[in-house]
Amino acid sequence: MTTVSRGQVLAQAWAELGPAVAPLSNGLGRPLVRTEKLILDPLVLRPTHNPRFAGVSVRAEHAGELRAVLAAAGPALAATAGWFTLLKKARRRAKVTEGNPQDLYFQRCYELATEYGDPGIRPDADRIATDTIAELHEPGGRLTVTELREFVRTHAPELTALLTRTWPAPRQRTAPAARLADFLATSAEAPDAELFATLVEGRAGTHESAEVERPGVALGYGLTDHQRLVPPALGSTASKKQLPKPLDRSILERLFASFTSAFHREAMAEVPALVRQEIHRCAQPWQLAEEVSRLVLVLGRDATDGLDADGPAAPGAATRLRARWQREAFVRRVQRLPAAEVPERSRADVFGVRQAYLRRLWVRLHGRELRAEEVTADQVWDLLDGVLRSVIMDQRDQLRSALSREAGAA
Amino acid sequence: MTHPEQTALVEAAGALVSWDLLGAPEPVVEVHAADRAAAWQWELAEPAVLTAVHRLALLNWARFWWPASALAGVPVLHPALLAAEHALATHAVSHLLDDEQATERALAALLPLPLEALSANENLHAEALALAERLAELAEDFGVQAPAPAAAARRDDYALAAGGGGQPGGLVVQRGSAPVDWSLVPAGAADAVAEASWIILRRNGISVLEASIPPSPGGFPPRLAARFGPVELDLEPTPTGELTGSIPLPATALLLPADQRVLTVYAPEFAAPAPPDPAAPARRAALVGFALSRLEDPAASLTERAGRLL
């Protein structure tokens, strides 16, 4: 079976679309990461419906088809690019500076392209662009936070009662899950969907949650500052800069943390439902509502056990994550970042890599639950790897800002 | 892997692409996730892509290791030009980078561009204007406000602060000097070539160690310290910009074997003092030579070519 790199086919087919799609391309004329993520994958190629287009390589006989699909979408993509340019102009006119235009407008532009076609031949294109910007930047996101605060404030007695009644939910005994390691061993190259389903069904994540009920365990994972999990408060204020550890966040803070982008907000439930769901979620094992999320958290926990230790790591995911972390030491030296000593105040943030990892993984899983995004077996590795990557990038940013603070303070 | 100081690196998805600045002109590609690397690796065969990746790698090196030195005549690179070119170079190859947010991160570091200061040279000025324009467009695409260009005047010519400044008070018993290990201080914290000097004085029956290093050409106000044999001292800035410090020495320090009578300058909370690397002087001299050659190289970045002007 001959295969070709999907990226290569995509790049060639994209190049054939010509300068019309330049607003969706980078300096080398390749589709932007967001073009691929927000437009090509979900709207044009749709690999979940067209598994032959999924993966990093496609079979030779499907390459032509992939090219044809992209070529057929050419006019729509060119129109999308046209709308994007117009929307940026309208944004400038409206003096909007909030948010990343690619995140906010790409998918909308594709919709506009499908609905109205090429903006170049529509006399009312400017008006549509202006209206779209006005609609997209209605203070929706803000309103939701205000709405959220208002709802929690006015319903405080009732919600507090619900919280007290619910937390913690009674636990059922579950059977031990022995095959977590089996899944991790192959999750990167050939994820075993059947085994994943079995683990979910066997409630492996729930079973493993028994251990966080023991004093000090969740603390050791960096998920809380307490020896024992404390029932979450309802909360009345939240600030993005000073969020407590995930399991110490109030109901309001948990939801607030997810209200970061208008794009994601759309996929979430209405405020009253959201608050009640969150109260129930807190009472569940790992304070996550879905068994799949719990399982992935436990997989992340196991894959990072011994991340920064010596000695052999388990094969598969753990070995790969360890390799990434070890490579990071070299990259940091190439980037001339602090090595031996780190300011005391950021030491825990910077060197508690596994804690930072599990915190971030929990937050991602929580966010996916809120947006009702499922996690499939073949997404697990990307998720586990992506979390370490983002922890590493954040640590570097922290080290750099610690350096410039040092410079400023001297 | 080559020594970090001479490595121009790009972190691509699933692989590290690096050039040894003092070695072969071809990149070394170290793949660690074949599936992710497969999505773009074929592109390195295209000259335009290879050039763009190389460009980013070199700018990365310039950000971290550029050996600015008043003594060696290597000018400080203008941080705003560097940040601007780095953001554009990052975006050009964004599709093959490991960090999906690399462009945003690079844009967050933008500073006001010194367009006026570059007007002395028509070509460089035109290039800088084009750069500013492309940057503004890119910033807009990402919803970032590019800072308005600075109307600042040219930076003063670098002047070596007068060294020494009078006779030390006391009887000089021993003296010496030592290069500053680049990897023990943050970028720009010390002149890349100037040596730290030390003197042991006898004063009123006490031995005192005095150490000083010349000011950094970049004006980075570092917090530095030095270790000498068993003692450690902080180096404080003087009005001339020089960093100096002194500390009483135990009598036994005078009897230290020569290999321990070594001054090691380091930045606390950045690196721990380490013994000198015997390969460092040759490597660093070569890197200073490399940096000097970049100033005149038509293929180098605008930041490097404008180095002497700003």
Biggest interface, and residues per chain? Answer: A-B, 54 and 54 residues
Poorly predicted spans of chain B? 153-166
H and E order of chain B: EEEHHHHHEEEEEEEHH
Radius of gyration of chain A: 24 Å
Number of helices of chain B: 7
Q: Give the class of chain A from helix and strand content and strand pairing.
A: mainly alpha
In terms of DSSP E residues, the strand content of chain A is under 5%
Low-confidence runs of at least 5 consecutive residues of chain A: none
SSE topology sketch:
The complex is a heterodimer of chains A (410) and B (310).
Chain A: E1 3-5, H1 6-16, H2 33-45, E2 57-59, H3 60-72, H4 74-93, H5 101-116, H6 125-136, H7 140-154, H8 156-166, H9 180-186, H10 193-201, H11 204-209, H12 217-220, H13 251-258, H14 262-265, H15 271-282, H16 291-303, H17 317-334, H18 344-351, H19 353-370, H20 380-409
Antiparallel strand pairs in A: 1-2
Helix pairs in contact in A: 1-3, 2-5, 4-5, 4-6, 13-15, 16-19, 17-20, 19-20
Chain B: E1 7-12, E2 15-20, E3 28-31, H1 34-38, H2 47-65, H3 79-92, H4 102-107, H5 122-141, E4 171-179, E5 195-203, E6 206-213, E7 224-228, E8 231-237, E9 243-249, E10 263-266, H6 280-295, H7 302-305
Helix pairs in contact in B: 2-3, 3-5
Explain what you see:
The complex is a heterodimer of chains A (410) and B (310). Chain A is mainly alpha-helical. Chain A folds into 2 domains: 3-136, no CATH class; 145-408, no CATH class. In chain A, 60% of the residues lie in helices and 1% in strands. In chain A, strands 1-2 form a two-stranded antiparallel ribbon. In chain A, α16 packs antiparallel against α19 (353-370). The radius of gyration of chain A is 24 Å and the shape is globular. The termini of chain A are far apart. In chain B, the strands form 2 sheets. Chain B has a 7-stranded antiparallel β-sheet with strand order 4-5-6-9-8-7-10, with no helix packed on it. Mean pLDDT of chain B is 90; it is low at 153-166. With 310 residues, chain B is an alpha+beta fold. Chain B is globular and about 70 Å long. Chain B is built from 7 helices and 10 strands. Chain B has helices at 34-38, 47-65, 79-92, 102-107, 122-141, 280-295, 302-305, and strands at 7-12, 15-20, 28-31, 171-179, 195-203, 206-213, 224-228, 231-237, 243-249, 263-266. Chain B has 2 domains: 4-153 and 299-306, no CATH class; 171-276, no CATH class. Chains A and B meet through α1, α5, α17 and α20 of A and β1, α1, α2 and α3 of B.
